[in-house]
Amino acid sequence: MGFTSQITRVVEWLVPDRKDRPEPGFAPRHLDPKFLSVPAIAIDAVRLEILRLGELVRDMLAEAIPAVTTGSPLDIDRLRVMDRPVDLLHREIIGYMRQISVGSLPADQSDLLMGLIKICNDLEHLGDLVATGMVTSARKRINENVVISPTTAAVIAGLHREVVEALSGVLRSLEDQGANTALEIRMLKAGFSALIEDIAAHEINRLRADEPKRLHTYTREIELTETLDDIFKIIRRIARTEMAVFAEKRKG
What is the pTM of this model? Predict the structure, then answer.
């Protein structure tokens, strides 16, 4: 871990955050071509860039509620646009990792690179779930003139907070290169599943309510709940990958 920390400090020193220069959100800050001749440094630069990617995804996920439950068409369009930098930065990172993989890597570096590729792709997939799944559901809500009740919106918001916190956890694990935080995220499954069951029971009770467009409202609410559940499952998959690659680094 000591050597890894030294590599990280070298990367950050050679390529500091360029906050004095306005750059698009997708512009890489750490992927310097000169690192490619030293794979250990290049791979750690990738880790730092994936952390930036994760922060973009977290920002988008954090904005999703209340935009998709009660937001206006403008709010929804703004959320959809937030996925563009995620897609572009993801492409830059994958391209850089491809250049690293062209050379001959030791087994430990090859395993770490493969793990980072998985994390990078999963984070990009999270962005797609928000920008496609949740945004599409929100647009249907508006087209159908569906109004999600304050009580149900609050229930969905509570689930959303748990998902955002779980994503923050895997990003901390990626930053610290430690398996303990990732393990904690993996252990959230039982509590989260119970929360999903509680929400399902709430939705069934709401379905019995004698209110206009109850079936349409139920469908939109269930869509959002299921998408948040899918996002949480991917976050746990990221945590599993982190546990594997960072636990192996500790052994090394």
Answer: 0.87
